[in-house]
Amino acid sequence: MSAGAGGNGLGTLAGAIVFGTVIYALVRLRRRAPHGATTGDLVASTLGRGAGETVTILQLAAYTAFAALSATAFGLAVLFAYVDDPLGIDTWLWPLYGLAALTVAAVVAYALPARATAAIAAVLAGVGALGLFYVALAVTAKALTDPDLLINPLPDAGPWTALAVIGALAFAAKGVIGVELITTQSDRVASVGRPMATGIIVAAVVAVTCWYAVRAADPGVARIDGRWATAIAQDLFGDAARYAYAGIAVSLSLAGLLAMMLGIVRLTGTMEAHRVPEVQLVSAVVVAALLVVGMTRAWLHADEIVPWVAMWLLLLVYAVIIEANARLDDGPAGWWLRVVMPAVFLAMILLPIGTARSIVPFLPPLAVTLVIAVLASGVGAAKARHATG
To answer: Mind telling me which residue stretches traverse the membrane in this protein (predicted)?
Structure first.
């Protein structure tokens, strides 16, 4: 559920905990501000307009980064359908496929009603999740019924294969579908708690199934995620599994891309009235396009920085939402969330760092995240002063 959690496994379970509490907090904030148009409006009802403006800017930045991640996953999935090792060749087809998907998703999200776009994203996410679940079940069944099963050794660390990259990016894209869509469509949040809870449970079940499939097929190495389930499936079932997973990744990445573009359309349409929303939308799409090219061509280590920045920006948004919820004086629930959730956020940050056994690779994305957060806070405060002045 997070870009940096390895795609699935324990990272997704941590994400499910976070998303569940965020939904709970948003429902409570909706009761406080029933006419709020965005998550920023809900936050502003307790923390003030400056905090609300800051959340809106952080959301827009995170959605843009996640849109780029989804488009990148789509391009790699399409390329993987007919190239054995797309990461081992130097081609511009990868970014071109991603840019094409980004453009189409932006047009669809802008032109179609929000409910139609959300419905398309939900169907694509459901198809992809179901396919991934069946791939993991097939691997598990093969591993449990064949005691002499032999697979190619899986690396403990080092460069990821194309399958692993697609798995992480595509599942990350799916992980933010729904929760992020709902935070931008927050005028309906009080009525979608049950569907969103169902979505979180489905994502967690798929993640655990993938993780168990890897453990069953390769029991000798302890792993915290299941990103290698698809690589094992190809090893066991050949090209059939490869083509199936290419289709799964296409469905999940397109679903995530549509959800993120819908969020961007919603946010850019609620910013200053004296600015043209279309200009802001095009600006966000251009930034996402630059990130797609940067990640696919490994410019300035964008492929290593953008996923972490996207995840950490969302964690900042969630932290502010939890704090806003804690300001509601209607019971101890808000206070307990204020105590427990910082520990969960910290665990989501420290778990991948501990797995990598080095903090050095995480310093650049951390610096970028802090810079964006400081700028968002400053701009949000300035906009709040301008509005009240």
So the answer is: 6-27, 60-82, 94-112, 119-140, 160-183, 195-214, 243-267, 279-299, 305-323, 335-356, 362-382
